[in-house]
Every structure is written in structure tokens, then in C-alpha cells.
Amino acid sequence: MNVSDGASEVTKSLSPLSSKYAREIEAILAKYPPEQRRSAVMPLLYLAQKERMYVDRETMQEIGEILGMSTTDVASIVGFYSLYYDEPGGKYHIQICTDLPCALRGAEDFLVELCERLGILPGETTKDGLITIEEVMCLAACDNAPMFQVQSSQGLEYYENQTVENALKLIEELRTMATRGPGHYESIRSDSDE
Amino acid sequence: MNDVGREPPAGHILLRHREIPEIDNLEVYRQNGGFEALRKAVTLMGPDEVTEEVKTSGLRGRGGAGFPTGLKWTFIDYDRYPHYVVANADESEPGTYKDREIMEGNPFQFLEGVAICAYAIRAETAYIYLRGEFWQIAESLDRQIEALERSGFLGDNLFGTDYSLRISTHLGAGAYICGEETALLESMEGKLGQPRLRPPFPPSFGLYGKPTVVNNVETLTNVPMIIKHGGDWYRNIGTEKSTGPKIFSLSGNVERPGNYELPLGTTFRELIYEHGGGIPNGRLIKAIMAAGASSSLIVANDEALDTKMDYESVPNVGAQLGSASVIVIDDTVSIPWLINKTIHFFKHESCGKCTPCREGNYWMVHLTERIAQGQASMNDVELLYDVASQIKGKCLCALGEFSIEAVLSGIERFRTDFEQVVAD
Ligand SMILES: Cc1cc2nc3c(=O)[nH]c(=O)nc-3n(C[C@H](O)[C@H](O)[C@H](O)COP(=O)(O)O)c2cc1C
Ligand code: FES
């Protein structure tokens, strides 16, 4: 492994992540022994995803350069873990738990009905490019089914003891927020019809 | 030590936030005896004395395997440094949500436990590995760690001694396998979360190849109480071989699902009917899974309901206590549907490293789907049983073993359910 570059390299580099998040990157690297920079790959990927919910090839390369890893190695981490994305999806990922304990409390019906009301299938994104519905495994909230989390560039938020009506209301709020907020993301999705 | 023979306390020992509002505030935690145990350990006890006290308590790992905690700490290789503590906060077993409640409700007791463990094994760095979905918990733990550093409970020269400790959080990113301790360590090192060949075990070859203790969040949250009141006091709770309180995560077809902190050795009946309020809608109980999706299916007859939930008794009804995530299944549930659910989970979560687990779960999911949809014959059920049997004992970690528990026990113990759904 090539770990010759010192911490100062990070700030010198002009690539987007390093220039925008120099302080955050230093703080992340400081958590691990200097010769174990590779441990920072997961937190750096989260940092990168803060921008727009997926990590592109150039950013993977940049993270690789910071940590002394090949781009392929970084890409394999992105591929292995389900919370990293290498292509754009909806701005908000609504991840509904349909694992066994939640399914015993009606989570499957909840999923089907919500998708029907949105006119999409599980795994698909609404036409405005904002909402992706995903089925996920246990989220450690099994006593409060139906439940889901919303993953966006802002992080993850849990919503427990949900009804379809509640969820639709939340989706409307997310849509309002997305159209009002200063999104760089909307411009990527030129096929937006809203 | 002190407090011997005193009655076990009436309230909670772990879920103390249920009695003490705002115990997640450092001042409130301190007013309620917080960090007295760490102070006592660091200023009055040697590291080995701390470990000895934990051994005396009989505390066993709450992450699933029930391994004696104090004994694990003695396995640390004292010829090589640095040492590390890694708290396992990956909590991804379907039906398990106890560590989340501890970290949200009573985080300082958990952090104090991490610190005492670190002192006992002479580690000056500890990490908390949280599943990626616990992003907000990680942020609040970061703030709480900062508060501890400001108050002198973490950082350099604790309590004026030469002992120093730093704790950091590390977020996973959605992979059940990273709860397995060696996959977790690989993940922390920035690699794919795949299990290592063992031995060597983490106490001799752990994080960065250094001696490491990996303990579950609930395990560590017991430790301040043991150091404060003494191991003999702790032994008053629970059974002789399964000491202490346990948080049972109750889920599924039950009136009041939730976390219940009860002594180990409480019966299934008491948990499900007294605390959980029984089965809703006038239905009958059919089966119980005691260790989340990784359990075999227990036939919920009177003998099973009167079985004590401890590490020794649950095997008498053909299952394991594991993480004590009790999933209740009523008589409307079809077992073929259920195992299709669990196999979907394991197929999704198999890390792909070992062929029997990867391929076996791939084949099993094809079979369970067809069986659950009524498009299979009894021959397919036998084939499924065969494929499952082939996975047994052939993988690096227990995920493969976990995946077949419900399949084998389901086919053995609920055969009529399969006969009903297969096409004739
Ligand atoms: C597939 C698999 C998943 C596991 N998931 C977890 C988990 O989420 N949390 C946990 O504490 N232990 C989990 N374990 C157990 C750990 O490997 C390890 O035994 C445990 O963290 C040790 O801590 P303890 O002795 O305090 O229980 C898992 C094991 C396997 C095989
Ligand atoms: S099964 Fe849905 S949160 Fe656990």
C-alpha cells in the first residue's frame, strides 16, 4: 500500500472534495493511526455522498488518492455496502423495512399500497426524480412497524408507526422542500416534469 | 465485594432512562452515580482486578454467543501493544433493537462501560462501530464524547493518573455481516466486510492485527454496574449460569412489542403474555423465534412457553437464546412464507466469501419462493432440506449456519404447513 503522502497533501490538492471539506477530512483522518489511513474510506464516502447522494468515479479516484488506495478498491467498497450509491437515484430514498418482524405487523401491505398510490413499483423512482421507494432489511425498529427511513444527502431519518396517509403527507413535504430549496440536484435531472 | 447479598434493584439496571428522565445529559447521569465506577476502577483498582470482578459477575456476551466477558478480556495478548476495544453497535439481526435504545436513552452508561473495558485491557483507543443507519446516534455519541473530554472523563491522564483514553465512532454502511466481529474489523480497516479465518481470535489478532476486545453494546453497558456494586451483587440477578439482566426485544404478533429488561431465566410465557400482553385479535400462538431471524422455530406449546430464557434452557426446546430477540408468530402465519422471508434476508446479506453460504442461499431462495407461492412439490421441500443440510459446518462464520436454522426446524417441526402449500 502506498501511504507516503502526508496529511498536508489533503489541503494542497485542488480536487473538489479536499478543497470543500478540508477540515472535515483532517478530523476524520485524525481518528485512525497515521499508518492506517485506509480506515477513513467509509467516512470519506459518506462525506462525498453529502453532495448529491451518489459517488462518481472522479470522487472515488480522489478518495483513493487521499488514502493511498486504487480507484478500483474504493469502487469495490461502494459496491459492497448498500448505503453507498454509484449512480444517481431519487433525491430522497424512502427505505421501507419489510423484514420478518415488520412483515408480521403489516409492512408488506403498507409497501404495496404506498407504491400503488405513487404509481411506481418498489425499487423505482417517481417521475419527478425525487422519491425512490426501496424495500430494506431490518432497521432495528421492529416494535414500531410499519416504519421506514428516508435517506438523502442530509443523512438518514427514521419514521416509525406509519400509515400510508402519513407517508404521503411526508412525501408532499419533501417535494415542497425540494422545489423551494436551492438544489443543485434538480439541474441534473433534466427530465423532471414538475 | 461491596453490596453483597443486597436485593437486586427494583428498577432497570440498563434501561435506566425509563426511570430517570434526561439521563442522557451528563450532569444528570453524574448526579445518579455516573462515572463513579470508572473513577473507582482507574484510581482504586488495577486493570486485572477489574477483569477479575467482571469474571466474578458471570457476565456473558449479549451479542449472541453468550461467551463469558471477563474470560475474553484475559485472552488479550499482553506482549503486544497497542490494544484496542471495539464496541459492536452494528445491531442488524432482524428483531433486535435493544442497543439502539441503550445508546439513545442511556448513552453515558454505555460509554462508561467502554472506558472501563479499555482500562481493564490496557487499551488507550476504543472505537464504536455502528451500523450506517445509526447515523444520528453516532452524531450524538460524538457530542457526548466531546462532553466527556471537556469534563475530564476521557482524554489524557484520567483522574490524575497516567492512564489516557480516546473513543471514536465509526459508521458502517448497510451490511449485516459486519456484525460478525472479524468482518467488522475488516470493515474498520477500510476493506470489504468479510470474515477472517479464525483462529487467531481478536484478543490476539484484532484491529490492525493488534490485540482487540470486541464486545456488544449491551454487554458493555452492564460493566459500570458490576464495578460499582461488585460481581457478587450482580450474580443475584438471573440464574446460576446465566447471570444478570437481559434486554429482550419482543416483536411480531404480540399486543405490546418492545424492549423488556428482565432477569435471564424469565420464561417465554411471562415475557409474551404478562409483559407483551399476549397475542392480538384472539389468535393463538404458533411458533417462537428466540434469536431473531437466525433462530430455529420453536413449537409454542406449554413446555416451550414455560421454558426459561437463559443460555442453558433454550437448547432444551431445540433453539438458542442468541441475542434474545423474541419474534412471536401466530396461527395465521404460514411457515413456508416465513422461511422465504428469512432466506431472502440471508441471501441478501451473505458476503459471498464462502461458496456453501453464497450458493446455498441462492438455491434456497429459488426453492422457498416457489414453495411459498404454491408452485412446488414435496420433492422440492426435500431438496430444500438437503441444500440446507449441506451448508452446515462449512463456512468461515456463523451466517451460513444462521440461515438454515429456520429452514431445517421449519420443515421438521411444521411439516403440515408445507404439505398444505405444495401443489399435488
Ligand atoms: C453473522 C453474524 C452477525 C452478528 N451480528 C452481531 C451484531 O449485530 N451485534 C453484536 O453485538 N454481535 C453480533 N455478532 C456476534 C459477534 O461476532 C461477536 O460475537 C460479539 O460482538 C461479541 O460480543 P459479546 O461477547 O459482548 O457478545 C454476529 C455474529 C455473526 C456470525
Ligand atoms: S424488522 Fe423492520 S425494523 Fe426490524
What is the CATH homologous superfamily assignment of the largest domain in chain B?
NADH-ubiquinone oxidoreductase 51kDa subunit
**Would you tell me which CATH topology of the largest domain in chain A applies?**
Glutaredoxin
Low-confidence blocks of residues of chain A? 1-14, 182-194
- Trace the largest sheet of chain A across and list its strands: 2-1-3-4
- Provide the CATH superfamily of the largest domain in chain A: Glutaredoxin
The biggest sheet of chain A amounts to: 4 strands, mixed
Number of strands of chain B: 9
Share in helix of chain B: 40-55%
DSSP helical segment count of chain A: 10
**Largest sheet report of chain B:** 5 strands, mixed
* Number of helical elements of chain B: 17
Global Rg of chain A: 19 Å
Please give the share of residues in helix of chain A: 40-55%
- How many discrete domains of chain B? 3
Bound molecules: flavin mononucleotide, FE2/S2 (inorganic) cluster
Task: Tell me the CATH architecture of the largest domain in chain A.
Answer: 3-Layer(aba) Sandwich
- Quick one: CATH class of the largest domain in chain B? Alpha Beta
* Count of strand segments of chain A: 4
Structural shape of chain A:
elongated
Q: What's the CATH class of the largest domain in chain A, please?
A: Alpha Beta
